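wait is this the right file?? whatever heres the structure
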């Protein structure tokens, strides 16, 4: 049975030197210690909006998981946004922390969901800033995300133009930033944190012509090889643009395939990871290891 929910639109959660940043909140109308996820749209870092996640937000809230769909700064031909765009995700988390008691949510039970460019931002932020005294990112869901910028540079001239705009330099001019900005190369840094144990769920379309499926396949392999719990869900007959809503693009609704099967798996993953009894700044995986020795 769907829970009664509260929706709040266009809340200002932060600002850049150019604009105010807004978000939509979807949450169960009652409860406490409710897990919450931040929804990060795609659009090649240059377009898109929080509206793409309105059905996901409602679906999650009705299922007992609060959601915050955010707008973040977007690049232009003269405005590179990495790494400053990661500050927008931090601002969203700070906003959640400030309103946690009012909303009944628990920032120690935090998740990130992103598609395409949003998948990059969700995973990169989780690997670099997974936890501090006030929050803990326990779960990340990435849909046909961008995880290896050097490899994406090789795929087309159009992608080279976009990546240069995103990072402010070509691969030839600044190879180090292409490594530093790639989630697949941030895994080692995450593992140096003593309480890092974020878990991942990656989904993609096998026929994707926009973002090569190898981006997700190789990222998931490296996560698993590093001992990070990772679930994958490949859609054999789909490409790009099916996870959420896009103007004038068919599909993307919760009632459309493959969301009819993917959404169930995503919700199962989130509840399994975010609703664990233990909350606080420690490693759940480490506690499980210690229990096995008792």
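ok assuming it is, sequence goes like this
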């Amino acid at each position: 049975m769907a829970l009664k929910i509260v929706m709040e639109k266009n809340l200002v959660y932060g600002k850049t030197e150019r604009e105010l940043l807004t978000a939509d909140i979807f949450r169960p109308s009652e409860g406490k210690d409710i897990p919450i996820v931040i929804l990060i749209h795609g659009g090649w870092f240059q377009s898109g909006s929080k509206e793409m996640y309105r059905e996901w937000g409602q679906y999650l809230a009705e299922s007992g998981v609060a959601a915050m769909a955010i707008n973040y700064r977007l690049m232009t031909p003269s405005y590179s946004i990495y790494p400053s765009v990661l500050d927008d995700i931090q601002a969203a988390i700070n906003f959640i922390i400030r309103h946690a008691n009012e909303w009944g949510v628990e920032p120690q039970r935090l998740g990130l969901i992103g598609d395409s460019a949003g998948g990059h931002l969700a995973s990169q932020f989780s690997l670099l800033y997974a936890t501090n005294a006030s929050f803990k990112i326990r779960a990340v869901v990435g849909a046909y995300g961008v995880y290896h910028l050097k490899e994406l540079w090789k795929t087309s001239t159009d992608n080279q133009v976009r990546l240069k705009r995103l990072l402010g330099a070509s691969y030839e001019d600044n190879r180090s930033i292409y490594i530093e900005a790639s989630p697949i190369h941030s895994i080692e840094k995450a593992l140096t944190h003593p309480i890092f144990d974020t878990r991942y769920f990656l989904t993609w379309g096998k026929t994707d012509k926009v973002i090569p499926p190898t981006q997700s396949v190789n990222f998931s392999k490296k996560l698993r090889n590093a001992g990070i719990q990772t679930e994958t869900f490949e859609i054999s007959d789909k490409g790009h643009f099916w996870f959420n809503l896009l103007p004038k693009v068919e599909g993307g609704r919760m009632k459309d395939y493959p969301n009819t099967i993917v959404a169930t798996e995503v919700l199962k993953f989130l509840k399994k990871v975010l609703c664990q009894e233990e909350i606080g700044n420690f490693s759940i995986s480490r506690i499980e290891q210690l229990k096995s020795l008792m």
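The first helix runs from residue 54 to 62. so i think its the right one actually
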